[in-house]
């Protein structure tokens, strides 16, 4: 897609700082990093959302393998406490995994946001009853993939 910034990178028409590449995927540093080593992993084929992957595409395995490899590389490069991995599709409609390390002694906004979320979540009254949670789980189990 001509207007997709990630497709522009894949085509070599936009710069990036590559950290890993294979036949089906590409990983590079985020232009606006949340922390040192924050990377994005994308499939080289334009796929808007993770729910747009079809089993016959044979992209899920290579995509998640690259996410794993890059996360391990970041962990070993920076001796991270942990790594947050998020799949989004709201700002750039091209499937991408954000790999965001938490490095000892360095603060980042994502960790602060997740800590606030946890703080609030454990103090809220449960939103659903046990019966409602059972019904939600059943609905998901029975839904078509």
TrEMBL record:
<protein>
    <submittedName>
        <fullName>HIT family protein</fullName>
    </submittedName>
</protein>
<dbReference type="Pfam" id="PF01230">
    <property type="entry name" value="HIT"/>
</dbReference>
<feature type="domain" description="HIT">
    <location>
        <begin position="5"/>
        <end position="109"/>
    </location>
</feature>
<dbReference type="InterPro" id="IPR036265">
    <property type="entry name" value="HIT-like_sf"/>
</dbReference>
<dbReference type="InterPro" id="IPR001310">
    <property type="entry name" value="Histidine_triad_HIT"/>
</dbReference>
<dbReference type="InterPro" id="IPR011146">
    <property type="entry name" value="HIT-like"/>
</dbReference>
<feature type="active site" description="Tele-AMP-histidine intermediate">
    <location>
        <position position="96"/>
    </location>
</feature>
<dbReference type="GO" id="GO:0009117">
    <property type="term" value="P:nucleotide metabolic process"/>
</dbReference>
<dbReference type="GO" id="GO:0003824">
    <property type="term" value="F:catalytic activity"/>
</dbReference>
């Amino acid at each position: 897609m001509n207007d997709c910034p990630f497709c522009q990178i894949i085509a070599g028409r936009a710069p990036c700082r590559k950290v890993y590449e294979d036949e089906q995927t590409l990983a590079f540093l985020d232009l606006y990093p949340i922390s040192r080593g924050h990377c994005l992993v994308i499939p080289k084929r334009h796929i808007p959302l993770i729910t747009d992957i079809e089993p016959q595409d044979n992209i899920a395995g290579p995509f998640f393998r690259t996410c794993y490899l890059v996360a391990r590389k970041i962990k070993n490069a920076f001796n991270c406490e942990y790594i947050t991995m998020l799949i989004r599709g709201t700002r750039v409609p091209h499937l991408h995994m954000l790999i965001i390390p938490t490095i000892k002694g360095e603060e980042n906004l994502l960790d602060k946001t997740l800590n606030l979320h946890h703080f609030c979540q454990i103090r809220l009254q449960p939103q659903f009853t046990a019966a409602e949670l059972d019904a939600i789980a059943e609905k998901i189990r029975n839904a078509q993939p």
